[in-house]
Specification:
By secondary structure, the protein is mostly beta strands. Helices cover 0% and strands 64% of the residues. It has one domain. Strand 3 and strand 4 form a beta hairpin. The structure holds zinc ion.
Length: 66
């Protein structure tokens, strides 16, 4: 069985995965909390501490027991 992989996004500058996207959230009366509505293109890297762009990447994950 091939190892499981997951999609992640990395900073193009430093390859860190500590990245964030600008986003809109909308208030939900039902859940009484702010829920993610949509994400924007502008990305921020917490390691570079500045704007960046993201590159999608695959990482291997250990199979977790059921
Ligand atoms: Zn970075």
């Amino acid at each position: 069985m091939p190892p499981a992989t997951r999609l992640t996004y990395l900073c193009t500058t430093c390859r860190s995965d500590r990245v964030k996207l600008d986003a809109w959230s909308a208030w939900s009366v039902e859940s009484q909390s702010w829920e993610l509505d949509s994400t924007m293109q502008m990305a921020f890297c917490q390691d570079c501490e500045c704007e960046t762009s993201l590159v999608p990447s695959r990482i291997f994950v250990r199979d977790s027991p059921p």
